[in-house]
Amino acid sequence: MIFYFSGTGNSTFVAEHLAKAYDHEAIRVDEWLHTGRINFNIDDQDRIGFVFPVYFYGLPHIVEQFLLELSITFEKKPYVYYIATCGGQQGQSIKKANAILQKKGLGIDAAFDLLMPDNYTRMYDVNDEQKIMQINQHAIIELKEIMHKIEQKEVGHFAKTGFPRILSAPVTLFGQTFLTKTKGFHVLDSCIHCALCERKCPVHAIELIDGKPVWQKKKCEMCLRCLHHCPKFAIQYKNQTQENGQYHHPVI
Ligand SMILES: Cc1cc2nc3c(=O)[nH]c(=O)nc-3n(C[C@H](O)[C@H](O)[C@H](O)COP(=O)(O)O)c2cc1C
Ligand code: SF4
Ligand code: SF4
């Protein structure tokens, strides 16, 4: 069983790749909001995985909520691996997840960070297709090495990045408090009223009113799925995103 969350497909790609290779079920954590499915029995499994993106050196809010609510029953503790997909710095996201999972008797045995294109285009530019392709190709090579360790059930903290809590925690707090506000979103006239953004938002923050997306929640995950998937690139955040392009993982 592999639990994952993804805004723009990086983590989906990784989770689905692992699920296919290991013939495991991949479960998107935001489905829990629709299905209520939060109890899992894994008696028949000797290995479970978690694949989540890093947000503000920490966990996406929905991931933290899911992990806190998650109830997993098992006869024997499975081997637990965790992959943090990130643009360059996982901060304390692995430690945060481990602290929650340990309380459920599911402490992480092997932790990895995996560098992938940074979809936070409020700060980063994704226009250079060549560079994006290279990062994704390198991620596939790294993923193979990660899978080798998982198959050997190697134990360790294999993440190459990480900040001490004193540096990460203020960024996470600031990000989750001030940088997840939806009032910064606006929609350009190029919108073709297709409602894709409404359908794709993992937390139902968007509703089409008179054919245009309107944010119904004051805060959201800030996963940028709506912005990156809009066929007309009509969703923007303040004046921060228009020059920086759109991204989603090429195979998703
Ligand atoms: C709101 C937000 C915050 C982010 N914060 C970080 C961060 O602190 N460190 C980092 O390396 N990448 C950060 N990123 C980049 C993502 O972690 C990275 O692109 C990830 O692979 C996206 O995965 P996904 O495509 O599955 O959503 C952030 C992205 C978003 C949308
Ligand atoms: S996805 Fe883009 S084009 Fe479609 S309704 Fe939303 S903003 Fe408009
Ligand atoms: S409104 Fe956009 S950025 Fe916010 S959670 Fe929904 S899809 Fe993600």
TrEMBL record:
GO MF term (any one): 4 iron, 4 sulfur cluster binding
Database matches in Pfam families: Fer4_10, Flavodoxin_5
Domain 4Fe-4S ferredoxin-type: 182-211, 212-240
Entry-linked SUPFAM superfamilies: 4Fe-4S ferredoxins, Flavoproteins
Gene3D superfamilies referenced in this protein's UniProt entry, alphabetically: 3.30.70.20, 3.40.50.360
Cofactor list: [4Fe-4S] cluster
PANTHER family (UniProt xref): PHOTOSYSTEM I IRON-SULFUR CENTER, PHOTOSYSTEM I IRON-SULFUR CENTER-RELATED
Function: Ferredoxins are iron-sulfur proteins that transfer electrons in a wide variety of metabolic reactions.
Protein name: 4Fe-4S binding protein
